[in-house]
Every structure is written in C-alpha cells, then in structure tokens.
Specification:
163 residues, Nuclear Transport Factor 2, Chain: A, 4 helices, 36% strand, disordered N terminus
Length: 163
C-alpha cells in the first residue's frame, strides 16, 4: 500500500511539473502580445507628435499604402488622398499653433494576430490661449505589414470633453 501511495505521489508530481513546462510557450505568446500592443500604442504617440510638429511625412509614415480615412462623411483612399486631406485640416494650417494632448486612459488597443484596433481621443490645446481648440476621436484598424504596424482604416470624428 505504501508503494502504491508513493508511486501515485510521484506520478502526480511528474504531471504537475510537466504542466509547468508549457508555461514558457504561453509566456512567449504573452510577450508577443505585449510587444504588439506596445507597437500599436506607438502609432498613437507618433500620430499626435506629428500633428503637434506639423510633420506630414511622419504622419504619412503611419499609414498602409491602400489605407482609407473617413471624416465628416468623406473618405480619402490611399496615402496621397489622405495626405491632401490632412494638409487641409486646421491642425496643419500655418497659423494654427496647437499641442496635442492625448490622455492614455482614453485609449484602447486590441490585437488578434496580424490585425488590431486602436481607439483614442485627442484634445488640441491652442498654445497662445491655453484653451482647448478641438476635441477629436479616432477608431482605427491596424495591421502588421512587412513587420510594421500601420493604419489601414481610420474613422475620425469629434467627441465631447468630459472630466
């Protein structure tokens, strides 16, 4: 009986230890998920940085070649049309001096393989008056293309500023 109990305990121990061996695979997947989440969040950071600096080249580097951007009921398709649309926006006008404030708690990222989504809100602060000049929101589809996360579709709009 003692041998049977001891044998059962050893089998239970072996099974428990072998179950732990699979955690490295799970850990690798978790690390990949975190890396993808971070890369998608970088899109938001570079998006707002480019707006504050009026750097259209940096902004356009975030878009996939055949991306679409819909705002105010109009859709721009492809990087050239998207570029023209942004250059006509108030944020890129020479007389506009806005800083883009983008609260992290108003951002949401999802990842599923090589696809994901990104939602954020942006508060444009006028540098001279120090007042909110515009509040916007974006819902984006993103994809890993040639190893980089890029915007494939953006739906932009306004939002209500809430405390």
């Amino acid at each position: 009986m003692r041998t049977l109990v001891l044998g059962g305990a050893i089998i239970a121990l072996v099974l428990a230890l072998s179950a732990c061996g699979g955690s490295s695979e799970s850990s690798a997947t978790d690390q990949e998920q975190l890396a993808d989440d971070y890369a998608i969040r970088q899109i938001e950071e570079h998006f707002h940085e480019s707006m504050s600096k009026k750097d259209i080249g940096q902004l356009m580097s975030l878009w996939a070649p055949h991306a679409t951007f819909t705002s105010k009921g109009k859709t721009a398709a492809g990087k050239q049309q998207i570029r023209v649309t942004w250059l006509k926006s108030p944020a890129f006008k020479p007389k506009t001096h806005w800083v883009s404030d983008h609260p992290a708690w108003k951002m949401k990222v999802t990842v599923s393989g090589d696809r994901g989504t990104l939602h954020f809100e942006c508060h444009f602060i006028d540098v001279k008056s120090k007042k909110v000049a515009a509040t916007t929101a974006a819902d984006m589809d993103v994809a890993r293309i040639d190893g980089r996360w890029l915007i494939t579709r953006m739906l932009g709009g306004t939002t209500v500023l809430r405390a």
